[in-house]
Amino acid sequence: MKNIVLVGFMGTGKSAVGRLLSRxxxxxxxxxxxxxxxxxxxxxxxxxxAEGEAGFRKREAEAVEWAAALKGRVIAxxxxxxxxxxxxxxxxxxxxxxCLSARPDVIVxxxxxxxxxxxxxxxxxxGARVEELLKLRAPFYAKADVTxxxxxxxxxxxxxxxxxxxxxxxxx
Length: 172
Ligand code: S3P
Prior knowledge:
By secondary structure, the chain is an alpha/beta fold. The chain has seven helices and five strands. It has one domain (about 5-165): Rossmann fold, CATH 3.40.50. It is globular.
């Protein structure tokens, strides 16, 4: 059974949706950032501080390689996974790529409380940074198989949309 891989920008709800979806589908949940932090023995901001973004991306690619061998899971990937074509190909070969999206203002509202755990947004103007990164990343997120806008939906609503999509593809 293929995996369901949740991708998309920070603050679009991947972890919360992934946890509920895994319960609904009775499939184990895997959070790639948790795996990276465990393997490194440091938190994500600590990895960025000590090893730079390049060090983090290397660890992320290794986690993707590991995850691509899994079956029947719900996997939440970090927001940058789609930036690397090799990651996209590995994840797609092992599952359906479901991209969660949201409007920039909604993303900013959701991430404001947790900026210290998001090194890429934790600067003087998180709002401008979100806009800038969203523009840069749009073509990469467009490579997903399905995109669901979470801006005006509850977590339950998003999970329901994903289940509908899975049913239509006979993938539930
Ligand atoms: C990142 C997103 C984060 C985490 C890291 C880099 C990104 O994950 O992997 O800070 O490049 O978008 P979430 O999307 O789960 O916040």
